[in-house]
């Protein structure tokens, strides 16, 4: 049992409950994104393309993490997306690269703790993710390159626009939580 002094829990039990809460926030937000991923909700679609919620989560996570944590998160969420859709071609490769690259950026110079930078990151990473996916399609399927190129242009641009527009829905609350979590853990 935790020692209670003046109605406050002891530091170890507070830290443990805070860490459990953080795990719930992480798992809950991933579940939220995974459930939204396959749906085309009216108002969230641009040219029949919905936001890439798992990419938004990977970028949000990777902004303040090491490259290996970004890579791991991208691979894990890519495998989740493969489970929701088709496993061939894989989404794990493109989301893993997006997580690694996002984490590798010079955060002090590029990201100034505002969500405008996150919007730009999601926009660029969505273009990258769709390009990697199209490259896998070109290597593994019988696509005519001109058809694939026109499809890539439409899907990549609409995915980048719609994903970046919905980024604040995840980025702002999750970043606030993780900032608060880190501040409380440092006390």
Quick structural gist:
The protein has helices at about 10-35, 55-60, 65-85, 90-105, 105-110, 115-140, 145-185, and strands spanning about 5, 10. By secondary structure, it is mainly alpha-helical.
Characterization of the model:
This protein is 74% helix and 2% strand. It is mostly helical and 187 residues long. The protein has one domain: Arp2/3 complex 21 kDa subunit ARPC3 (Orthogonal Bundle). It has a two-stranded antiparallel sheet. A hairpin with a 2-residue loop joins strand 1 (4-5) and strand 2 (8-9). The two termini are 22 Å apart. The mean pLDDT is 81.
Give the SSE map:
Layout: E1 4-5, E2 8-9, H1 11-36, H2 53-62, H3 67-84, H4 92-104, H5 107-110, H6 115-140, H7 145-186
Antiparallel strand pairs: 1-2
Major sheet: arrangement of strands: 1-2
Overall geometry comes to elongated
According to DSSP, the number of beta strands is 2
Number of domains: 1
Largest sheet: 2 strands, antiparallel
The level 1 CATH classification is Mainly Alpha
Examine the secondary-structure arrangement and name the CATH architecture: Orthogonal Bundle
Instruction: Report low-confidence residues grouped into runs of 5 or more.
Output: none
Secondary structure class reads: mainly alpha
Beta-strand level of the residues, as a percent range?
under 5%
The average pLDDT value, as a whole number, equals 81
Following the backbone from N to C, one meets helices and strands in this order, namely: EEHHHHHHH
Radius of gyration: 19 Å
The helicity comes to over 70%
Termini separation: 22 Å
């Amino acid at each position: 049992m935790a020692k209670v002094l003046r109605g406050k829990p002891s530091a170890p039990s507070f830290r443990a409950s805070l860490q459990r809460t953080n795990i719930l926030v992480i798992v809950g937000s991933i579940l939220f994104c995974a459930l939204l991923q396959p749906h085309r909700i009216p108002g969230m679609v641009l040219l029949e393309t919905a936001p890439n919620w798992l990419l938004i989560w990977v970028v949000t996570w990777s902004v303040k993490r090491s490259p290996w944590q970004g890579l791991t998160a991208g691979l894990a969420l890519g495998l989740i997306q493969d489970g929701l859709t088709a496993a061939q071609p894989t989404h794990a490769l493109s989301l893993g690269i997006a997580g690694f690259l996002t984490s590798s950026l010079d955060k002090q110079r590029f990201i100034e703790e505002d969500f405008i930078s996150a919007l730009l990151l999601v926009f660029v990473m969505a273009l990258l993710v769709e390009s990697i996916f199209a490259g896998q399609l070109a290597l593994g399927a019988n696509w005519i390159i001109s058809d694939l190129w026109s499809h890539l242009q439409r899907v990549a641009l609409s995915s980048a626009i719609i994903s970046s527009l919905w980024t604040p829905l995840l980025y702002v609350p999750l970043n606030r939580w993780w900032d608060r979590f880190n501040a409380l853990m440092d006390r």
